[in-house]
């Protein structure tokens, strides 16, 4: 009997040692098979604490719903907080989207990208699509912003024009480069040239590169480039010989500037061929010079020429009252 009792006691000790003792459990955290038995849930997302309902977390077929159903293992600490190893900076925004179905998104592109990453991680497809739609709208706004390069040196200008694949329109505007006084209308015409430049930028910004040169020798001069070479030039300044003094006069040949801008579009995306070059190098029947304008052509690169259009350089101008005769002298 003593031998059987000894064997029985040994078997009992073996069975007891095979069963895990409660003391072996981690008292700090354990795995939860599901949270559907509860109405509320406490979430610790990277140290950010949130208190919400199972119904809110289960609104979309997301990672949060799979956590509630037990399909995804989670860690719960000793105080009952579901611990998610994720930044909690934008988790409140994710919860608000699940609650309301819509949420204001940050305007900053970097923060918006962070929200998108969180929405993708939690697989909240509605919020993912919402972020993508807002990003697309922001992209349209960014593309509509006009950026005008400012030329500071001749070397920079040559490099920019040579490497640009789009036609280039340059406005050289240096009002301080003048040793004479200006005529009464010159300041207004100078501003009109600048305003026209801004209007052309808004209209053709996606097709033409517009640049400004404020350090050049000319007071107001337009230059038009295609395929890395100058195609045309419109100079808007002239010297006026008034009574006993010289003055600088600034013109505003709006129609001519607009015409040359349209002509330069033929060089867009290197689409110009022999026909295009011929079209630009020859004046059409509908093209005309305004009063007081003249045109010069200088040979550049063999048969290619640059049209230079400017107001007449030497003008005998009488500053007397309206109706008096003005004599032009070449």
Automatic annotation (TrEMBL):
Matching SUPFAM superfamilies, A to Z?
POZ domain
Instruction: Determine the domain of life of the protein's source.
Output: Eukaryota
One GO BP on record is: negative regulation of Rho protein signal transduction
Fetch the Pfam families from UniProt: BTB_2
InterPro entries on file: BACURD1-3 (IPR045068), BTB/POZ_dom (IPR000210), SKP1/BTB/POZ_sf (IPR011333), T1-type_BTB (IPR003131)
Gene Ontology cellular component annotations, sorted alphabetically: Cul3-RING ubiquitin ligase complex
Q: Which GO terms describe its molecular function?
A: ubiquitin-protein transferase activity
What are the BTB domain coordinates in residue numbering? 39-139
Q: Quick one: where's region Disordered?
A: 1-32
**Family (UniProt):** Belongs to the BACURD family.
Q: What is this protein called?
A: Potassium channel tetramerization domain containing 13
């Amino acid at each position: 009997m003593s031998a059987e009792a000894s064997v029985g006691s040994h078997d009992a000790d073996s069975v007891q040692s095979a069963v895990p003792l409660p003391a072996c459990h981690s008292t700090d955290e354990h795995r939860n098979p599901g949270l559907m038995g509860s109405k509320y849930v406490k979430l610790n997302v990277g140290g950010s604490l949130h208190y919400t309902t199972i119904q809110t977390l289960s609104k979309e077929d997301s990672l949060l719903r799979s956590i509630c159903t037990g399909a995804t293992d989670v860690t719960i600490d000793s105080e009952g907080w579901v611990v998610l190893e994720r930044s909690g900076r934008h988790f409140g925004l994710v919860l608000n989207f699940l609650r309301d179905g819509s949420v204001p998104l940050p305007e900053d592109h970097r923060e918006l990208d962070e929200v998108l990453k969180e929405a993708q991680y939690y697989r909240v497809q509605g919020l993912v699509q919402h972020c993508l739609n807002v990003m697309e709208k922001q992209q349209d706004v960014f593309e509509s912003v006009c950026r005008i390069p400012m030329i500071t040196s001749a070397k920079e200008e040559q490099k920019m024009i040579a490497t640009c694949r789009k036609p280039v329109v340059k406005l050289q505007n240096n009002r301080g480069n003048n040793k004479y006084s200006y005529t009464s209308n010159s300041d207004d015409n100078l501003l009109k040239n600048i305003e026209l430049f801004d209007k052309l930028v808004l209209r053709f910004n996606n097709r033409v590169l517009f640049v400004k040169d404020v350090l050049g020798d000319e007071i107001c001069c337009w230059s038009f480039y295609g395929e890395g070479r100058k195609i045309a030039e419109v100079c808007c300044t002239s010297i006026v010989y008034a009574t006993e003094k010289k003055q600088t006069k600034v013109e505003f040949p709006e129609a001519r500037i607009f015409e040359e801008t349209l002509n330069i579009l033929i060089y867009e995306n290197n689409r110009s061929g022999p026909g295009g070059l011929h079209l630009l190098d020859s004046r059409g029947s509908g093209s005309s010079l305004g009063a007081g304008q003249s045109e010069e052509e200088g040979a550049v690169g063999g048969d290619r020429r640059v049209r230079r259009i400017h107001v007449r350089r030497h003008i005998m101008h009488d500053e007397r009252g309206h109706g008096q005769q003005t004599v032009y002298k070449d």
